[in-house]
UniProtKB/TrEMBL annotation:
Its main location: cytoplasm. Belongs to the UreE family. CDD domains: UreE. Involved in urease metallocenter assembly. Binds nickel. Probably functions as a nickel donor during metallocenter assembly. NCBIfam families: PRK13261.1-1, PRK13263.1. This is Urease accessory protein UreE. It comes from the Bacteria. Residues 144-198 are annotated as: Disordered. It is found in: Cytoplasm. It comes from Rhodoferax lithotrophicus. Keywords: Chaperone, Cytoplasm, Nickel. Residues 7-71 form the UreE urease accessory N-terminal domain. Pfam families: UreE_C, UreE_N. The lineage of its organism: Bacteria, Pseudomonadati, Pseudomonadota, Betaproteobacteria, Burkholderiales.
Amino acid sequence: MLQISKLIPQGKGLASVLLKRASTVELDWDVRQKSRFDATDSSSRQLGIFLPRGTVARGGDVLVAHDGSLIKVWAAPQAVLKITHCPEHGTPFDLIRAAYHLGNRHVPIELKPDHLKIEPDHVLADMLRAMHLIVNEVTEPFEPENGAYATGGHFGGHHHGHEHDHDHKHNSRPATSPTPPAPHVHGPGCNHDHDHGH
């Protein structure tokens, strides 16, 4: 059995030629959120995975075996509920409401611009249908969001090294000036578009 104890998120830093040669392993969400499990890769090798506790494998991540071989992780298609808004009786905003209610129940959710995905649950499906959402069971890969405070910078399967400087300067007044800037008032002449569709 090939022992694995290292994971490289999205294969970051690895040459594309190495990734093309890597074998693959297809795992569903239930397995990918475990730190210890066995699997079989595309080369029929038995894998014994022992990752640091709390590690979640995402589609596109790369496992590194003790012998140096690389195994690319694919998110296996699995049964999920795909939730979309009803164009006749609702709006896309209904998806935000649904995500709020599901989040209050600590349900793992995959967020997309035009739909949500959750694991099958008939009680939640009934709740969502009562909110005039369309709920269909499909077989697709499932990549739910991590919590906002999750470690590893893995949000929804992607790592983005964003650093934002929030020291915005809205005027040329020196920082030591004792006079605060005038508040910005929205109204006629503020040069902002205020088309609220009334």
